[in-house]
């Protein structure tokens, strides 16, 4: 279903780049399979495409149908792992211009993913005169950004529909047992969906966290899960032919040889937020104990006219992982111009996707010649099944990669540092001493 081409990476690597890692990969595979490695309690995503809660899945589909029929807008409130996956899939399978181009169903707005007053005011302005619903997503139920946003949009909804009317338009995705959002959802009687205990935020796109907003966008979530299930089955097979093993081994080998940055390259504007999701997945999984490739992303060909210079000739610290879709959805033919003032008649009659393909091939070789190893992942099409495959491929390869690096792939202790400082500076009870200490430094 998905192909990985390592041929423009292997010239940069010693001959045994894969064979020397097969034992470590087998050990990583067992840790993921059995949940027996560091952070093993958070490997619930490994079998999720097969073991997901089918009753809840049907409720997600029913809720999405309801939202699609009674709402002109849906406000999806969440941050990090409770945000990026949904946005990535909605944009990749539809468009970054979703709200201008979708047919049927609600406009989708993302909120609570930052603390910008201006961004908040913009979404309020865009939804206040529409029939809207809210999907608030927070596993912990206590994250400041979504909690503040939810307070604001809940008040707006209650003002518009009354408490009872608002109650029927709020969908809460959170922990099954604990947290402030869980308490509120129980008390108010919102429809609830669960973030499973064993699935951390960045691995949660195929739970209700991602699936409800994605279904509201009209995506076939059964096909998405089917693609992920196929990937799960294919990638569980141990061995040197396994593309997730190859990807994890290649990036680990390049890292040990001194590469510091991995750039995810997409050629579709709709791929941009998939890059954001991927950056969180790898950055939060691997970036600890002073280790790991820094995950970056670019959109070609646009960024070839900006970042392309650095990639070609700047410090030789990066590798590229290109994700391409074998087929475009539509076709655009370049017209013939009798005057040919722009000299482009050599392209007349050609499809734009042919031009894009040659740009991709030329860029790949130029970058390889410039000392940038390239890995190429090819998905058959920009459809739900392929994207399900792609999501699982990166999740699985990321889990393997974390164990190759000998870190805990499933915690994120570094995220707490800014939160504690912010709480102290905001005057949260219990942080008084820290507040004084921080204020003195600022
Ligand atoms: O991956 C993670 O754990 C984080 O990005 C979280 O998803 C993010 O901080 C949001 O957390 P929560 O869902 O608890 O609000």
Would you mind describing this structure in some detail?
This is Glucose-6-phosphate isomerase. Keywords: Cytoplasm, Gluconeogenesis, Glycolysis, Isomerase. It comes from Flavonifractor plautii 1_3_50AFAA. It catalyses: alpha-D-glucose 6-phosphate = beta-D-fructose 6-phosphate. This protein is an alpha/beta fold and 442 residues long. The protein has two domains: 1-34 and 223-403, Glucose-6-phosphate isomerase like protein, domain 1 (Rossmann fold, 3-Layer(aba) Sandwich); 45-218, Glucose-6-phosphate isomerase like protein, domain 1 (Rossmann fold, 3-Layer(aba) Sandwich). 48% of the residues lie in helices and 12% in strands. It is built from 17 helices and ten strands. The protein has helices at residues 22-34, 48-51, 54-70, 84-93, 98-101, 117-127, 144-167, 180-188, 208-216, 221-235, 243-256, 272-286, 307-313, 352-369, 384-404, 415-426, 432-441, and strands at residues 3-5, 73-77, 107-111, 132-138, 170-174, 191-194, 261-266, 294-299, 318-325, 374-379. A five-stranded mixed sheet has the order 1-10-9-7-8, sandwiched between helices. Strands 3-2-4-5-6 form a five-stranded parallel sheet, with helices on both faces. β7, α12 and β8 form a beta-alpha-beta unit. α11 packs across α15 (384-404) and α12 packs parallel to α15. The longest helix is centred in the middle third of the chain and has 24 residues, at 144-167. The model has no long low-confidence stretch (mean pLDDT 97). It binds 5-phosphoarabinonic acid (PA5).
The first-to-last residue Cα distance is: 54 Å
What class would the helix/strand composition place it in?
alpha/beta
How many β-strand runs?
10
Q: Which outline best applies? A: globular
Task: Report the uncertain regions.
Answer: none
Fraction of residues in β-strands = 5-15%
* Helix-strand pattern: EHHHEHHEHEHEHEHHHEHEHEHEHHH
> Overall pLDDT, averaged?
97
Order of the strands making up the biggest sheet: 1-10-9-7-8
The count of helical stretches stands at 17
- CATH homologous superfamily grouping of the largest domain: Glucose-6-phosphate isomerase like protein, domain 1
**Under CATH, the topology of the largest domain is which?**
Rossmann fold
**Bound ligands:** 5-phosphoarabinonic acid
- What's the gyration radius in Å? 23 Å
């Amino acid at each position: 279903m998905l192909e990985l081409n390592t041929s423009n990476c292997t010239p940069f690597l010693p001959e045994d780049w894969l064979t020397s890692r097969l034992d470590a990969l087998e050990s990583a595979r067992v840790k993921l399979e059995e949940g027996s490695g560091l952070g093993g309690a958070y490997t619930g995503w490994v079998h999720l495409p097969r073991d997901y809660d089918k009753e809840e899945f049907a409720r997600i589909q029913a809720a999405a149908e309801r939202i699609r029929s009674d709402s002109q807008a849906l406000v999806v409130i969440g941050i990090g792992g409770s945000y990026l996956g949904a946005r990535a899939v909605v944009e990749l399978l539809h468009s970054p211009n979703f709200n201008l181009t979708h047919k049927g169903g609600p406009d989708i707005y993302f909120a609570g993913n930052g603390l910008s007053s201006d961004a908040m005011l913009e979404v309020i302005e865009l939804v206040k005169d529409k029939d809207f619903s809210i999907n608030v997503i927070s596993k912990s139920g206590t994250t400041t950004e979504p909690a503040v946003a939810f307070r604001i949009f809940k008040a707006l909804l209650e003002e518009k529909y009354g408490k009872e009317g608002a109650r029927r338009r709020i969908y809460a995705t959170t922990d099954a047992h604990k947290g402030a959002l869980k308490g509120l959802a129980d008390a108010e009687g919102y429809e609830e969906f669960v973030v499973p205990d064993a699935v951390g935020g960045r691995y949660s796109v195929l739970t209700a966290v991602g699936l409800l907003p994605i279904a509201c966008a009209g995506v076939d979530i059964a096909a998405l899960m089917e693609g992920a299930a196929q990937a799960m089955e294919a990638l569980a097979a141990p061995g040197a032919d396994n593309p997730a093993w190859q990807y994890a081994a290649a990036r680990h080998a390049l890292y040990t040889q001194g590469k510091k940055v991995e750039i995810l390259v997409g050629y579709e504007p709709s791929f941009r937020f998939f890059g954001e999701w991927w950056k969180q997945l790898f950055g939060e999984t691997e970036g600890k104990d002073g280790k790991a490739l820094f995950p970056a992303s670019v959109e070609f060909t646009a960024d070839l006219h900006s970042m392309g210079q650095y990639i070609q000739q700047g410090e030789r610290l990066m590798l590229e992982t290109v994700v391409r879709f074998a087929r475009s959805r539509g076709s655009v033919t370049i017209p013939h111009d009798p005057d040919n003032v722009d000299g482009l008649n050599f392209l007349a009659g050609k499809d734009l996707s042919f031009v894009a393909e040659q740009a991709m091939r030329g860029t790949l070789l130029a970058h390889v010649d410039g000392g940038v190893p390239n890995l190429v992942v090819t998905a058959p099409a920009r459809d739900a099944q392929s994207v399900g495959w792609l999501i699982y491929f990166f999740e699985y390869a990321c889990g393997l990669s974390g164990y190759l690096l000998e870190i805990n792939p499933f915690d994120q202790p570094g995220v707490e540092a800014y939160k504690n400082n912010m709480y102290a500076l905001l005057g949260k009870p219990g942080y008084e001493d820290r507040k004084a200490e921080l204020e003195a430094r600022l």
